[in-house]
Amino acid sequence: MIENASEDLKCDVLIFITTSSEQDALKTAAKEAGVGFRRRNMNEVGEYFQLGIIGATRVNAVRTKMGPFSHGGSAAKAIIFKIASGATAIIQLGMAFGIDPNLQNAGDVLVSTSIIPYDDRDVVAEGIVCEVMPAAQQGIDDAIEGADSIDQSAATRGSIQPSARPHPELFGSRTGVVGRVLGAFTPRRFATLWRDMLRSPSPAKQHTYQTIYPRVLRHHAKPSLLELLKREENRGGYGHRIQFGGMLSGGARIFSSQYLKELVNSVPNAEDGIIGGDMEGVGLLSISPPEDPLWVVVKGISDFADENRGSIDLDEVRKALFKDQRRTACQNSARFVLRALANAEKI
Amino acid sequence: MSKLNSFFGSKGSKFSHPLLTFLEGIQADRKEIEVSRPKDTLGFKAAKIYLHITADEKQQPPAEYAWDDELNAHLVTSGIRSITADNEKMRFALGLRFGFKRAESRFGDGFFNAVLAMVVREEGFAEHQEVKRILNYVSTDQPYMHGNGYSDCREMIERAIGDQANSLVKDLKYTLEQAEDILAGAMAKYLDERFSVSDRERLGWL
Predict the structure, then answer these.
(1) Is A59:A11 a contact under the CB 8 Å cutoff?
(2) Do A2 and A41 form a contact (C-beta atoms < 8 A)?
(3) Domain-embedded: residue A347
(4) In angstroms, what separates the C-alpha of A80 from chain B's closest C-alpha?
(5) Residues of chain B with pLDDT under 50
(6) What's the structural domain count of chain A?
(7) Domain range for A160
């Protein structure tokens, strides 16, 4: 039974963590810093961890669910715990994805000078990809009637507008799916197949879409926290790099380098670059107006949000390596933050 | 001669804002501002400045501007008051927030919170009812007082408060009694927001 400890919840800085790896790393870093990591509870808001005084700062930690949105996600917990604790700053700690494996290493620590909430996007229709045109329909009928006298390419080229094909990758070359199976069809069979497809009950028109980010604004982190962390970076003594810059943040679990590339190229660029991204930081935007932010995100790189990340569970060796990277990412970020707090008053 | 020549010697040497330029050029019987900062469900909505002007005995429709710390500071030094004393408290609470930023950045949240609470408790603010009530719910630690950090931080905080106090008397021409009431009220509002006191009260956690 955990006692109700509302008074102990009062603090200056709240540290937010999400996963068990992050919790373990913070506990280890707290031990190294000579402070506790006591599980506590306040009936009205739930469980938290009391670290005590680090340097001149009273610190507590809160574990959230993954992502910003859900009940118990970073947004909900930030609002509740900020008010209940009277904290004047929140640091989101843990693991993040980097954006460039050539320039960054797993374990490097990212500090958000700003958050770019990429979920705030517009998805708009781009153009028509499949439309049954009268001329096309007539072409199919002609093709069927004169099937024996037309060649295979005429059957496809004459009937359907090239740009109107539903899956251009299938028709791009003879090596595509259609190209490979064409030989199995007579011209008449092929034309009939097209007619049947076009007469199927699927919608006559389908639109492609594109995602645009005109409303995405950069939200700047709390200057006093950035200054604290910058001073710690300048003190040095770390075996990993510490990078300051903009961080993408949103609810998606990204396992695609192409999508990540699209994001980086589409959102407003940062004066100090985009260095990575996470899922929880965006929830912290809920706690304070943009002109008076109370938060910063400090996370170690555990992966690069690419295809490799998505298939890690299929390979035991890579899985073990990834687990190690996650641990390192969590430990590096936790140590960096606690040392920064411990050294804060040594000015 | 380059077209860039027109930039030299004429503009841009100091903070400027269309509102300030407008105010410099207008002959008005009354120039005042109103700071609007509606309470949100929790916290506040974005602050706005409304300019109230009466010229030739005609009251102009109020013009709206987004809150800007520097703009406000220049409006204060230009002698433009808020429409009421209570509104002035809200305005100066934002002024204190701006004024404290340097000390907060330099010393960090924990140390700054501790020294600020100490200054407020020791320098007469606690005698003011509004501050006294809020202080009951402000919890801070005792700062380490034997290093340079403490005296530097305290000095920066006191200077920031002093700047606001002097503006009330010198720029806005309030009497000392009025200025003290506004300054203390502003401090109460600043502490209330910083330490989430009203929000805790609203949620029944006090």
Answers:
(1) yes
(2) yes
(3) no
(4) 9
(5) none
(6) 2
(7) 129-209
